[in-house]
Amino acid sequence: MIENQLLARDIRDPATLNAMRIVPRHEFVPTKMQAYAYADHPLSIGMGQTISQPYIVAYMTQILELKNYHRVLEVGTGSGYQAAILGEIVDSVYTIEIVEALAFTAKNRLSELGYDNINVKSGDGYLGWPDKGPFDAIIVTAGAEEVPQPLLEQLKEGGRMIIPVGPHNGVRQLLLITNKSGKFRTKEVMAVRFVPLTRKNN
Ligand code: SAH
Question: All domains of the chain, ordered by start, with CATH?
């Protein structure tokens, strides 16, 4: 996976590569999918949700330019795999999952694997986690139709956010948003498909 999917493409950040080497991806997928855990594609994790392709996880991690003292927010915990990758690199991770059963499973899995710097809660990540912010970096791993305003408000000055934005069920653009002294700059970095970001009331 590291050689053929990451190094062979454009993943160069040592911290990202190290985390991708260390985290046991097979622990985050259902037993019947374990044989495919390291394959070059996304995997179904049940409840209609997916765990992103390893390359996309690495790409979104690398682009955040994480430091070991950072505090990071993730929206869309899913299996907890992306959170574990972040947890290997930064000081603390706050991750929100809207499907309660997935949040529960991810929380137990992460604590069994010893990730005591990762905080999981069930709720609507569109709203962010205001009492734990602002964050050095924000990663949204579900496809949004627009950039949630609460997340912009919780991004530190100098902070970076990566989020897939585009029409419902269509191809979305991964947007890299940077907060330069209160001014937000947005750059489209890649076309991607993601399961939708949903809200509690729909
Ligand atoms: N990062 C995950 C994969 C995410 S799949 C991993 O590494 O496994 C997208 C996840 O976002 C799904 O689990 C979905 O339930 C969740 N999600 C969708 N809308 C959400 C919202 N508003 N708040 C929090 N989580 C949400």
Answer: 2-192 (3.40.50.150)
**Ligand 1 neighbourhood includes 82 CB (under 6 angstroms):** yes
For 25-39, write each residue's pLDDT tens digit: 999 999 999 999 999
Distance 107 CA to ligand 1 centre (A): 14
127 lines ligand 1 (CB under 6 A): no
Tens digits of residue pLDDT in 75-117: 999 999 999 999 999 999 999 999 999 999 999 999 999 999 9
Question: What is d(CA 64, CA 163) in angstroms, rounded to the nearest whole number?
Answer: 11
Claim: this prediction has a pTM higher than 0.90: yes
Distance 98 CA to ligand 1 centre (A): 7
Asked if 125 and 76 touch (Cβ cutoff 8 Å), the reply is: yes
3-state secondary structure of 91: coil
